[in-house]
């Protein structure tokens, strides 16, 4: 089975400054202690992690590079791709509410490797409370600017903020919005899962909405198909295989399970789907959305 890994990271925090990977103390993190991933993770480390799987292409995600150097990571990643033909596409860092957004877009939009941008909006720790960052006028203006540059938007936010997306999306309805990490269904109580499903169903009604099924780890638990099968299948059924794709989120999700455990879990969870549906989930959707050409058959 072939795979396009639609979301993973390359980083080398010894050479390049990622504050969360270098600074002390470490930041609070949803998987807990992340000290084991504060080290180089490049093609060699990725190949070791993914051995046994036919990864035909992949998409790298920004890794919260030094905010004082807003185009540095995208330029560096373009150099990595030029030297090795990997990755096939990159999601660049860009702060939608910063005054320098226009200048940043001018640079990253010219890089062949860049397809999309990510800026995690401000979020509440739990449902309820004040609106999050997607309600800020400056953030919305930044989202609209992506349309003019022909860029997509990768959105990472907890499911309880998805209700803010439609008002923002109206400003640039042609910009694809790719939801990262399955909407972060961390609360696995019946109430939490019901809220997650309702939010995902509402989000999926927008024609430009796509989902990456990834980031399903739970703190202090090893990744298991028992924990995640129903969420994987519900996400697929809500969006359809043509608007869903699988991703490893490595090395981050390596805190919860091996590459083989996670991708094998996606395989097991989708055994009842047809061959064309599985091809879309593992290869086709990511290739179409991120413009990855010449995927081996």
Automatic annotation (TrEMBL):
Species in which this protein is naturally found: Pelagibius litoralis
UniProt cross-references to Pfam families, sorted A to Z: Amidohydro_2
InterPro entries, A to Z: Amidohydro-rel, Metal_Hydrolase, Metallo-dep_Lactonases
Domain Amidohydrolase-related: 4-292
Domain of life from the UniProt record: Bacteria
GO molecular-function term, one example from the UniProt record: hydrolase activity
Protein name per the record: Amidohydrolase family protein
Family: Belongs to the metallo-dependent hydrolases superfamily.
């Amino acid at each position: 089975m072939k795979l396009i890994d639609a979301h993973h990271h390359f980083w080398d925090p010894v050479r390049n400054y990622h504050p969360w990977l270098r600074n002390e103390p470490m930041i609070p993190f949803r998987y807990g202690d992340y000290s084991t991933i504060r080290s180089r993770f490049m093609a060699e480390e990725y190949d070791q992690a993914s051995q046994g799987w036919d990864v035909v292409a992949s998409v790298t995600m920004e890794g919260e590079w030094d905010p004082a150097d807003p185009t540095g990571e995208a330029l560096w990643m373009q150099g990595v791709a030029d030297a090795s033909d990997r990755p096939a596409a990159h999601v660049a860092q860009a702060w939608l509410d910063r005054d320098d957004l226009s200048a940043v877009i001018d640079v990253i939009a010219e890089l062949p490797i860049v397809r999309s941008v990510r800026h995690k909006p401000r979020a509440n720790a739990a449902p309820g409370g004040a609106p999050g960052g997607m309600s800020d006028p400056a953030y919305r203006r930044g989202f609209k600017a992506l349309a003019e540059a022909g860029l997509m938007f990768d959105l990472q936010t907890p499911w309880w903020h998805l209700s803010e997306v439609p008002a923002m999306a109206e400003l640039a309805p042609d910009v694809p919005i790719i939801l990262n990490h399955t909407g972060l269904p961390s609360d696995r109580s019946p109430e939490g899962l019901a809220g997650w499903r309702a939010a995902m169903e509402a989000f999926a009604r927008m024609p430009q909405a796509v989902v990456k099924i990834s980031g399903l780890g739970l703190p202090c638990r090893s990744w298991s198909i028992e924990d995640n099968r129903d969420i994987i299948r519900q996400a697929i059924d809500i969006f359809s295989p043509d608007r869903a794709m699988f991703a490893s989120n490595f090395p981050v999700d390596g805190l919860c399970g091996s590459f083989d455990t996670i991708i094998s879990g996606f395989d097991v969870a989708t055994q009842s789907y047809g061959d064309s549906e599985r091809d879309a989930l593992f290869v086709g959707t990511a290739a179409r959305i991120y413009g990855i050409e010449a995927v081996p058959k």
